[in-house]
Amino acid sequence: MNLIIVESPTKAKTLSRFLGGEYAVEATTGHIKDLPKSTLGVDTENNFKPDYQIVEKRNDTIKKIKSAAKKAKDIFIATDPDREGEAIAQHVKEIIAEDGRDESSLKRIVFHEITKSAVEEAISAPRNIDADLVDAQTARRVLDRLVGYKLSPILWKKVRRGLSAGRVQTVCVRLIVEKEREIEAFKSEEYWEVYVKLRKIEPVENGEFTVQLIKIADKKADIKNKETAEKVVTNLKDSDYKVQDVIKKEVVKSSFPPFTTSTMTQAASRIFAWSSKKTMSVAQMLYEEGLITYHRTDSTNVAQEAILKVRDFIKSKYGESYLPQSPKFYKTTSKVAQEAHEAIRPTNVAGLGKIQNTKFEREGELLYGLIWKRFVACQMSASIYDETTINVLAGTKSSTDTYLLRTVGQIMKFDGWKNLYKKNNDADDSGVETLPDVVENESLKLLKISPEQKFTQPPARYTESSLIKTLEKLGIGRPSTYAPTINTIQVRAYVEKNEGKFIPTAIGIAVTDFMVGNFLDIFEYQFTAGMEEGLDRIANGEQKWVDLISDFYKPFEKKLIDVEKNAKRVAIAAEKTGEKCPECKEGDVIIRIGRFGKFLSCSRFPECKYTAKYIDKIGIKCPECKNGDVIIKKTKRGRKFFGCSRYPKCKWASWRKPGKAANENSLK
Predict the structure, then answer these.
(1) How would you write 141-201 as a 3-class SS string?
(2) Residue 283's domain spans which residues?
(3) Which of 324, 347, 377 is the last residue of a domain?
(4) C-alpha dist (Å) from residue 116 to 18, 265, 339
(5) Is 277 found in the same domain as 168?
(6) Model-level pTM?
(7) pLDDT for 491-507, tens place per residue?
(8) Which of 294, 322, 368, 482 does the annotation list as catalytic?
(9) Across all residues in the chain, what is the average pLDDT?
């Protein structure tokens, strides 16, 4: 009997289904060793040696693994194919070796998909545990522990008790705070756009089209107010219209690369409004059940065997015209040679297998469909459009000003990879106006002029999708860190999510101001990205992890002493409700944020101890009972939803902010 050790019980069940009786499979259920919670756990005087200890709740798991190991001929450690999985593999090796097991029978295997062929191939080619990957994970763990445990006590003294800091999470909050300040500083400006509806002189079917004013007297049409807009409209009414030129070109639109962790979480956020945490949970389930490849990756590489299979599938399913002459290859962004993962793709392109996990069955189907389409499309032929641009000149005899107006239309000639995303069978699904046939110098008839008043908009707040995209662009974090980082900053009430967009809380702003004001070097975007590159160099065997930590810690330690001694305390801005304290009658009722979220308090605390439950009203009456107020509530897992303030008398609830069709989204 041989033993295979994995991380997840679900993964163990999947392996057991096709490996047969000659293999026993045990799961570590995550980390079996970690740094202690109550102490620093890093010896800063002895090369930053980490004090890894057995995780107490894993004692029974370790006993099972040790018992199975004693009976096994060969032991294959098959933890996840990344730095964290490599570190867990090292810890598994250590606990088994404690019983005197010959290390030559302990073998490390790696596979990026849980299929029979992939596992058998991995078993046939075992390797040693990669010390460089283990060191990279150790460096990350030590670095994050030093930052968190050394900075948190200072936050307690200088901002508020109970706060905590994180190397990546603080930078993430900083992005959101700075975006909010951009929005606050933004001053909206009025501008006008002018649209003109024209048609051919001789009435013909589909002879009408609309053009937009682009230039006035060879300068950009920059219309700032109503008076100018009215003058332009008056001139356009008296103008003659003539086609300046017609530009036709063929546009080739190639497919997107297969998903990485970042692009997958962005797509799920945009299309399904899922949090990154939910997306990763569903992806984890699909991976563990053997339906997709490993879901923590920044690579767009695809295995040659998978490319051949998908090309055969495309040819048989869609025909040769949808298959490029040669396979498509995409440039990968991974900087770590040992972590040469594939992109996220289905393990069987022919279709979705049975999802065993009923909890995520529907979500699993949705995410799998997204992954499947992206993967198949990435090897399909490009879509081809005919794009037509019509430039129209307008002018009057009484004015020297000339006006350039323009419209662009597209007609799809060949849908290519977009065939997978079509909602119907129409060939032209581009959503762009189909234009009539006109020729240079052809005169046109004016039908209607439509001036539209608009105002410049402030920068958009971050969504999960745009935040992850920004973190990736800046080089901050890695595939395994996006979801936990974004979840942490919400759990710690540094930011809130309102209708899918992040807004910093008063606490988040105070912590950011203190950290950036006193530890700018550490929480600078380039420095944080540089630390990630340092971890990559360790993983590639190009740098020693102790050197990286030492270079960071020496100036950091000096800065800690200086800030603790000299930094000024930062006050958390209070949000006023506009009401007077009902108890002391003197103070204002303000909104504070505690360990369990928002609550009401008197501004004169501690002189006045008044507190009350905070009810987050949105200014809308319950669409069902018409009497209660719609308020924001949270599930046990922290997900926000809308409900009636008269609960349990009225049980109306909705995931979406109610409007005219609020009941369509009810949770009942």
Answers:
(1) HHHHHHHHHHHHHHHHHHCCCCCCCCCCHHHHHHHHHHHHHHHHHCCCCEEEEEEEEEEEC
(2) 261-377
(3) 377
(4) 6, 28, 22
(5) no
(6) 0.84
(7) 888 998 888 899 999 89
(8) 294
(9) 90
